Amino acid sequence: MLRLRAVCPFSWRAFQFRSCSCKPLITEMIKCTDEGQIFDLIQKSKAVLSEKQVECAFNILWQFQKQKTSFLKNVECVRDHPQFITLHNLATSQMEFMNDDTLVNVLYLTQQCATETHDLLVEALVTEAWRRLERFDINMLSKFSFCLANQHLYFSPLMGKIADIVHRKLETIEDLRSLSVLMVNISSLISQRFQDQLVNKTEHLFDTIDSSQVNVARRIVKFLRNIKYSYYPLLERCNTVFLSNMNHLDLDSISKILSLYHSLQFHSFEFIKMAKKRLTEMISLFNHPHSFVKLFVALGPMAGPEEKEQLKSTILLMSEELTSQQALAVMGAMEEMESRNSHLNKKIASILHKHLDNYKPIELLKITRALVFLHFQNKELFVKLRELLHSYLKISVIPSEISILVYALSILPSPYLDEVEISRIEAVLPQCDLTDLNSFATSVLRWIHYDRTYLDNTTGKQLKLLQKLDHYCLQRLQKCTNLNLLWEELKSLKGDWFAESLLEETVATLHRLMDEINYKNVAEIASFLSRTNYLSTLLLDRIASVVLQQTEKIHPFAILPIILPFSILNYDPPQSDEFFGICVQHLNSYLSVLDPLMLVFLGFSLATLEYFPEDLLQAIFNIKFLAKMDSQLELLCSSLSMRVQLRLMELNRAVCLECPEYQIPWFHDRFCQQQYNKDTGSVNGAQQQIYKMLAEVLGGVNYVKASVLTPYYHKIGERDKV
User: Fold this and answer.
1) Which residues belong to any copy of the FAST kinase leucine-rich domain (predicted)?
2) Contact 142/100 with Cβ under 8 angstroms?
């Protein structure tokens, strides 16, 4: 070391001077109050600025930008400033001298200052970081992966290299904050086995984070969404974090969490209730479209009548300022809200019409579906929509995009396809999955129905296309060798064509892959049988067997979908008493946690199977539970709310008749009378004529009734509508 000092005295002094002089200049930077002062310092000191000072300058500029209201406008001003370009050039020249921490921080900060992704500095920093990748610690690796994600490099070889490093070092990682960032960013590249390892590691580390770590919890939920895995134990723990921090969650956080829950089909009544309250308090706080549109989309579908009117009237006042994407988001929320505000519907539709040329195919489908659902009438808008959809269809080569375009065309008034478009569909069929094939078939059937109804014509092309769809679907099912991959394609399939053409072959494929049913996918296969109403004793017996063997691995939230097909199809598997007994026992510790809606459907499903577990029924039929359920009903759409009330009434009736020893009172007289009055008030002319003829035959109206009721409102003499 002393010899090195003697050989290079000047270099050593320069290094010492640079190290010592670094702090005063950084102190001066920290004292700056605006960008101008920072740029003045850069201009004066550019000859001696070190890599640490460059990093500090970027950081302070970014802090200033975060405080601005007109963010993008200020970023552009900063980016175009001569001294920012000087700073940019200094970072490029000093890159090799930067330590790992400084290198990644400068990359992150230059991106935050809206530097273009193809910028030479960004490219150079990414290349240098790639060269050093193996020596990055977990924190630097997570920040670097975030920078790559900002450039949409999710599928790049570099992100693959990061995934490999995480896989190799997973056992030694103890920082869940950094790991959660990495999990989200590498989720598109990893195998199912690696996914499971990350889920297990997250569970192991979860208790190491503070209960206020909302961002970590949100990233975990986002990771589960990305890998399409509704893993209830982790979702519950993340939900607990969100609930405990609800008073500190802002609009953006609540919106993102609601969207993630919706994607994962995870229902938390407590979160919805608290989020609704929090969002309602924000209505008067926002007067700018960017924030208010987010509030409208998040709160609108679950708001009460008064709040909905307030939201609609405010968004109407802002409508002239809405961008194309904001108008699209509002229209989607209005569809969920079943908006009947014709003035608002017309206003938003006019904005969509103005920007129609700028929307992508998937966005055009959303617009078409919303307009049709809301019964919107505007010939000019529909003509323009049809023209755009046809023009996209003539040039598109992506199967999923073509299926979207064809589906959108099929739900427009007067649907049609020309021969060129039919040929385009036929060309991509070999590349389509079951979801796309089903979408094509649904569209073609709608087209055939229209031609028969209005044109009295069905072309051979349509029928030939249906035959080809049948062929490719059967071929795909027969080639399938993985149950989880099959389920990804099956879970959204529905409609007459699927039921008539594919159901038998689909069940045969499930029989072939039956040994792959396990605790992870058992609820999904059960839900398929419920949805299709298909009695497969082989699959139901396998489901019961998996539950008996792997009960402890199955989350109580999954018990309802597992029990449902046995209830709907009225089937008792072998060892039925043991099977249903284990399901009920597995639920007992969760009775106070499950949503009211889920408990009611559980109780009803078990009652149809003649199982009446006392603990479950006592949890349902008490004042506290019923009050909680009433508050949940306010958050549901009218049809689902009525269905829940009917199921509760039927369960109440069954318990009173079958288990009087439980001493549960009958309290649905008023509800049933209201339903009875609705039904008797809707007797049609044919029924009235029949009753009149019967009265004449039997000797008078005293001997005839439209329906006869038992004390518990069972109907005699016609099909039970209650």
Assistant:
1) 560-629
2) no
Grade residue 715 by pLDDT with cuts at 50, 70 and 90: low
Tally Cβ neighbours within 10 Å of residue 682: 9
CA-CA distance, 104 to 473, in Å (whole number)?
49
Dist CA 168 CA 166 (whole Å): 5
Cα-Cα-Cα-Cα dihedral sign, residues 312, 317, 323, 324? positive
Residue carrying structure tokens 């001294």: 83
CA separation (Å) from 693 to 679, 688, 717? 21, 9, 16
In this prediction, residue 5 has a pLDDT band, given cuts at 50, 70 and 90, of: very low
Task: Using the predicted structure, report yes or no on whether residue 722 has a pLDDT greater than 50.
Answer: no
110-147 pLDDT, tens digit each: 887 765 667 788 888 899 999 999 999 999 999 999 99
CB 134 within 8 A of CB 87: no
User: Cβ distance 310 to 285 under 8 Å?
Assistant: no
Contacts of 304 (CB under 8 A, 6+ apart): 634
For residue range 301-312, list pLDDT tens digits in order.
999 889 999 999
Only one residue has tokens 């195998």, namely 191
> Which two tokens mark 266?
């995870």
Mean pLDDT of the 164-177 span: 96
Q: How many CA atoms lie within 13 A of 167 on its CB side?
A: 16
pLDDT above 70 coverage of the chain, percent: 90
Q: In this structure, which amino acid lies at residue 300?
A: G
What residues have CB less than 8 Å from 32, skipping those under 6 apart?
38, 41, 60
Q: Strand pairing partners for 709?
A: 715
Residue 171: pLDDT band by 50, 70, 90 thresholds?
A: very high
- 238 neighbors 214 (Cβ within 8 angstroms): no
Report angle CA 546, 551, 554 to the nearest 5 degrees.
95
Q: DSSP string of 29-84? A: HHH--SHHHHHHHHHHHTTT--HHHHHHHHHHHHHHHHT-SSHHHHHHHHHTSHHH
Residue 549 has which token pair? 């063997």
Please give the Cα distance from 594 to 620 (Å, whole number): 11
For residues 499 and 532, the answer to whether their CB atoms sit within 8 Å is yes
**By CB neighbour count within 10 A (0-12 exposed, 13-18 middle, 19+ buried), where does 34 fall?**
exposed
Q: Length of the chain in residues, anyone?
A: 722
Q: Is the model's pLDDT at 474 over the cut of 60?
A: yes
Q: What is the dihedral of CA 320, 321, 325, 326, to 10 degrees?
A: -90
Predicted pLDDT of residue 118: 73
- What letter represents residue 178's amino acid? S
60-81 per-residue burial string, b: 16 or more CB within 10 A, e: under 16: bbbebbeeeeeeeebbeebbeb
Written as one letter, the residue type at 170 is: L
2 pLDDT more than 50: no
- C-alpha–C-alpha distance, residues 625 and 664, integer Å: 14
- In the structure, what pLDDT confidence band is assigned to residue 658 with cuts at 50, 70 and 90? very high
Angle at the Cα of 410 from the Cα atoms of 407 and 411, rounded to 5 degrees: 95
- For residue 708, list its beta bridge partners: 716
3 state SS of 709: strand
Torsion of CA 678, 684, 690, 692, to 10 degrees: 70
Three-state secondary structure along 402-423? HHHHHHHHHHCCCCCCCHHHHH
